[in-house]
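Hey,
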Amino acid sequence: MKQYKFDGDYDLRVIFNRVFSQKINILNADIVVPIPVSEHTMLTRGFNQTTGLIEGIPYEQLLKVAANEKSHQSQFNRQIRMTRKQPFTMIEQVSLKGKEVLLVDDVYTTGNTLYHAADLLYECGAKNVKSISLSR
């Protein structure tokens, strides 16, 4: 994962994608939503590791990282991660009324990232929010 995410070996997505895509298809969601990266991360890393994992699967980028968020979760210990404020906003207000949403992330550490993302999706009317991560 370090080689893929932090060392920029984007070609590894193809290996992860084969198995990961099969699992996502089984979960039968109305909408697949990847966890976004910040603008800073996109500029420095050059890619969103989560969208790379789901290449070929239709998804909607509904979330964005708040403009004031510049730090990576991996820089913080568990205690700080668990007390962080909402890092996401909606790209645009949409109605998810009655929809089954699948959140996709690369790594599940504390669950706080997925919790914050799910919270926003429920505010938009999602009936149910499930999540899947490549690793833990």
